[in-house]
Structure formats: structure tokens, C-alpha cells
Amino acid sequence: MQILLAGGSGFLGTALRETLTASDHDVIQLVRSEPASASQVKWDPYGRGVDLAVVAQADAVVNLAGAPLAHWPWTASYRKKIVDSRVRTTRTLAEAVAATGATTALVNASGINYYGSDRGDEKLDEHSAAGGDFLGELCRRWEEATHPAAAAGARVAVLRTAVVLDGAGGALKSLLIPFRLGLGGRLGTGRQWIATVSLHDYLAAATRILTDAALTGPFNVVAPVPARNREFTAALGTRLHRPTRMTVPSFALRSALGDFGATLTGGVRVAPRRLLDAGFEFSQPTIESQLDAALG
């Protein structure tokens, strides 16, 4: 396949680009600076500047672009950056796919926070309603921005991705420092559900959704066996041979980090129902196996 990739320089984008290239797919990366190689094409996501000829030639467009959520503080200007970097870039690509005849598929990122930051013990799948907080509304608008492509008849799939665990990048890399120093511990009560997936399973799921023409709509890219924050904390401490007696109070996180702190103390219990129904098999279904793979 010839694949046009936006957001291909981040942690997940780099890993997906390398995986697809290793599988003999032709990956062309959309970049905002001057191209450094023949496998890159310049675009302007905010000015809706993307070469329609390049889009038309691709079998699929994969969009992983978006400003990091792990940023403090979430000022009004940074909130706008979070939204625009997702919604406006997605709309640019969806309209380009529609304008070129909708023969190109669109596989677009979203987040497990589609369901909100805290749904307690409620069991959620792809049919569950969106959350009403900032992140839930963000993901709803993010996914709605793909509608021009779908309305034109293109195949559109959305990756509602959980926290991807890998020791070399992402959230886990940041956590390893305090945990190795013996400063790791649960957040708040530790009872909140955390939505995670191994990097291996993320890449396998994204590749399957990208290459299977029968798969459309939203997919929860999350491990099938849920875990609570206290279980994740204990499992990570065990693998690093470090104590995990620390506790960060919920009120302290919320006071210091605002809405971002609320995402750490809340939780969602999400199942990958549509991936399982499609016959996808997870290699690391539990938090223990995910951490073994991430740290191995």
C-alpha cells in the first residue's frame, strides 16, 4: 500500500512508520518543514494546504497529528493548541480525501478519553456515549472532523487509543525515573481504572485496521483485561524491584495540575469490543504482560 502519514515524527508515529516500512508499505510522511528526503511531502494543516495529487495517489491517509496532552499548565492558549492540532488537521485531510474522489481511506487517531476522564466502574465499549468534559468533547469534535471523507464515501476508521506502554517512549518512560528512585506510588485512591495497551499490540491493531478494507468506524485500541491504578503501580514496582509506598493525594494533583490532574485521578473501564469481534488477538492482554513487554 502507499500510505500518507501525518504526525509521523512522534513516539507512536515513528514506531508505526518503521513498522509499515518494514512490511514493504510505501510510507510518505507529511511534514510542516522543508522535506528532508523523497519520502516526505510538505503540507500546511492549518491553511488546508495539502497536495491533492499526493492524496489521490495514496491508498490510505493515516493521521496521528496532535499536540501532547502531557503538558502543564493547560492554559487557554494551550487548550486551543490541543484542539486545533487535532480538529483542524483532521478536517484538512478529510476534505482532501473527499475532494479527490474518496478512493483513499482515512485512518484517524482519537483517544480513549472520548469517554471522558472519569466514568467510575461503568463498563464502556464503542457504543457508549462520549464524556462531557474537555477531553470527551475534544475527542468527539476530533472524530466529527473526519465526516467530510465519510460523507463522500471513503472508508474511515478511528483509533480510540489508550496509553501506549513502552520503556523507550511515551508515558511509561517518564514514570520510570521516579519509580526507579523508589518514589513510585498510586495516584489518589488507586481504585481508578487505567486504560493501557502495549506498543506491540497498538502497532498490530493499527496495521490491521489500516489494511483491512472491511473495518470502518471507531475502535478502542486498549488491552482487553482492565487494571486499576494500584495494580499497575504494584506490577511496575515489582518489575523494577522498588517499593511503591508513596501516595499522591487526589486533591494535590488537582490543585497543582488542574484539569490535567483530573485525568490522572479519574478512570475509564473500556473494552476493545470491535477489535475482538473482528478476530484480533492481543499478545499482551494484561498489565503484567504489557509491562514485561515494555521493559523486556
Relevant terms:
296 residues, alpha/beta, 7-stranded parallel β-sheet
Please provide a written account of the structure.
42% of the residues lie in helices and 19% in strands. The chain has a 7-stranded parallel sheet with strand order 3-2-1-4-5-7-12, with helices on both faces. The chain is α/β, with parallel strands linked by helices and 296 residues long. The chain has 12 helices and 15 strands. The model has no long low-confidence stretch (mean pLDDT 93). α1 crosses α7, α3 (76-99) packs parallel to α4 and α8 packs parallel to α12 (287-295).
Give the secondary structure arrangement, pairings included.
Elements lengths: L1 E5 L4 H12 L3 E6 L8 E3 L9 H6 L2 E4 L12 H24 L5 E7 L11 E2 L9 H11 L2 H5 L4 E6 L1 E3 L4 H11 L4 E3 L5 E2 L1 E3 H13 L5 E5 L5 E2 H12 L5 E3 L1 H8 L1 H7 L3 E2 L2 H5 L9 H9 L1
Parallel strand pairs: 1-2, 1-4, 2-3, 4-5, 5-7, 6-15, 7-12, 8-11, 9-14
Antiparallel strand pairs: 10-13
Helix pairs in contact: 1-7, 3-4, 8-12, 9-10
